[in-house]
Each structure stands twice: as C-alpha cells, then as structure tokens.
Amino acid sequence: MYIFEFAAQNLRTLDIFGMDVHLLSQGSKTHKTYTGGTASILILSVLIYSFYLFILQMNEGKNAILNRQEALLQNNEGYTFDSKDFIFVAGLLDGGGQPIINKNNSIYSVTFYFCNKSISDTQCTYFPSTICGDIISELSKNMGIPEDYQYISYCFDHQKAEDFKTIRLQGSLRMDNFTLFGALLNKCVNSTEKNDCASQELIDQQVTNSVFYYSYTHYQFRKDLNNQPYQTMQNFDVTTLYPKLKKYIKVLYSYSVSYLEYNPFYFFPQTTGYQSLEYDQSIIDPIISSDKDTQLVQIELHLGVKKYISQVTYQTLMDVAAKIGGFFTILKICVSIILYPLQLWQYKLYLINCYLNIKKGGSTQSLTNLMEDDKLNLLSVFFIKKKRDFYYEQNRIIDKLLDVVEIAFNPLRLTRQVEDLQYFVKQFDVSKTKRYRLDENDHEQIDIKSISRSINQEFEYQSGQQKILPRIRVNMGSH
C-alpha cells in the first residue's frame, strides 16, 4: 500500500510538459541567492584566468595540432646549411679517462672530409682539424661539458677552408647521388711531411682501451617553437677502442619538412614551410684490421632514405572558446552539486517567509511568538533548535501548498490572460457576429463587439463612449 501511495505522490514529477512559473515580479524563473552570486563570480574569475592561459598557450603553440607522417626520400632531396653553424667535435681519452697529451698531434690526428658520391665517381675534400677552444665554449655551457674539453677536442678548421662555407647533406634511394660528412682518427705516422711522432710503443699504449668521444650538431622538431620549429641540438657520444679493431660509426639523419599554419580566426590562413635535419639513429660496427693499419675510427654523417612531413595547425580562438565552454560546463556541474543543498535550504526559507507574510497580512490573529521577533534565516535555523523545528513544520505545509501560493502570487495576470483568450476566440465566431436583443418597447440590433469584450476592452470602451446597455428581461413563468 505504501508503494502505491509513494508512486501517486511522485507521479507528477514525471511530467515533461510542465509550465515555468515566475515567482518574482521581475519575471525571474529561478530563486537567486547571495551564495549563488558569490559562486558565479568565482566561476567567472576562474574562466577569465583560464582564458588568459589558453591565449598564452595558443600564442606559444603548445596546443597545436600535429599531423606527422613518414615518406621515402626523393631523388636529389637534401638540406644545405652554413658550416659555421655546424659543430663536429672529436677527441680521445686514455683508459683512465684522462686526456691524452697530444702535442703537435704526436699520438693521433683528426681529419674531416666531405664527399660527393655516385656510382661512377667519388669526390672527397679533406680538411685539417684544430683545437676547438672558443668554438665550443657556448656548447660546453649548454651541455654541461667541462671547459677543459675545449682544449683537448678537435674541430673543423674553417680558416684553412674558407671556400667551404656550406654543407649539403643529400640522400638517394638508389645510392647513385648522395653526400656525406665525416672524420678520421689516425695514429701518428712519421713521413716526409711529419717526423715528430711519438714512439710506436707509446702510441699503442695510449690508444689501447682508450675512449673516443664525438659530438655533432642535429636538429630536433618542436611544434611549440614560435619562429622556427626546429631546435638546434648537440649529440655527445662515446665508444671504447680496442686493439686490432677499427670502429666504423654511421650517423643517420632524416630529412624533415614542416608546414606551419597560422589561422587565429578560421579565415585568412597563413602557411609557412621549413626544412631541416633530424637525428635518426647511430650504427657502430667494429672492423678487424691488421697491425699495420693506422686508422682507429671512421665516423660518417649520412642522410637516410626516409623523411618526415609535418603539418602543424595552431589552435584558433574558436578552439579556445570551445575549451572554455567545456571547462565551464564541468565547473558549473561540480559547483552546482556542492551548492545544491544550501541553495535548496535557502529557497525553502524564502517560500516559508513569503507564506508567513501572506498569512500574517490576511489574519487578524497574531502568529506565534517565534515569528514575531524576526523572519527565519539560515543561521537561526542552523543554530536554534526551536526555529529548526518550526522550519520543518512550515516546510511540510509549503510542500503541499506550493502550487496554491504560486497562483496567489499572480491572480490578476492569470485572469486577464484567460479573458483575452476568450475574446480572441469570439472574434472568429461568424455565426454570432450579429445578434438581436429584445427590449420592452423596441427591437435593437447591436454588434457583438459591444457585449463580448474582456475587462481590459470594456474599460477602454466605456472611457471612449459612455453607453449603458439596456436590461434584458426574461420571463421565468411556467408554461
């Protein structure tokens, strides 16, 4: 039985066609509180701050959309860059990790070379090396390398190769036309041009189990960079040299092309293209050599057979607006869940106070002493038990009489709306556009508009024409 009563009481909550009732004269459909206003200001402040952060991220490209794919390198594709911006460093340490004293290259020498290779011909240009010194001073600071490495490392000697100002790495799938840049580490050997090498025993002792370190420039793709999507990087790698083994190190680059689209307002897009090199992988192979071979290490930088194609689209203001809208929805739901008990409590207090005011004005008898002091408020109901009990008692009355109270708030407006609707319907009743009325002395034909007006039209009519309708007498005698 209780289940049926509960179902009957809550049946109208399933009505999806209910009408909105304006509880305030200003036409507001909701009950507004100071708590809700404070929470709204807080949400608005959070949204403004979030919008500011999103705008900063949009300018920095942190939320840019990246579409990246790999493709095969086409013939004659390559990248040309300034040799002064390219740093190629090589050096040697002994087995204990201490620098090898190599005054006048008496233990070993480093030679750089650049080659154009094809199936039928190979042309290589060799360049001497020099102590790096200030060339890698900035590099040492960025990578945390001790400054002593500047004076034990060897770099490309640009002063002795002034004509060689650019470097072009070019690859080919068929290996018929490509370039490479490399370096050789050789033992010192006396010849007609050089006769100040150390003894063979000392050289073998120094280079046995020695550590070869090398560093080279490469570029890393960064979609969040403003001016250039490729960041200059520097690899620093090491490998151990063993007797009777020559190390062959192959460093592979990938050709990279990027298209950056700036389109802040969804129209007038601007696309900028960039190209660069990216580090792919390194391959180290030991090669068995004879005792007479003076070559210890050969390192080569190649352009691989694949390339990266990147499409970067920076977010627009519409994207920011969409994120703000989604964030606002989630934030509003969370705050609404937190504020719902307090908002409901305040709304019930508002209805109770309105009900008590109506009751107080329409009754000559005084209310309880509880309500003569002050209206119910949130703090009093929370801390005073007597008022809290009174609140629960009045709340039960409000739950039953809420619809009656709503109609009592707007009786005049409801009456006028009904009368205006009736008058509008009668205007289209053709059969009753003319009607005859009998009086005691004469017959008079009148228009329906003079007798079928609403209260509002009747006031207007009587103010313009001071006419009085004759009485209608009906004979109620029995037949």
From TrEMBL:
GO terms for biological process, alphabetical: reciprocal meiotic recombination
Keywords: Membrane, Transmembrane, Transmembrane helix
Membrane keyword on record: yes
Coiled-coil parts of chain: none
TM segment ranges: 34-55, 324-345
Keyword Membrane: yes
One GO cellular component term: nucleus
This protein's name: Transmembrane protein
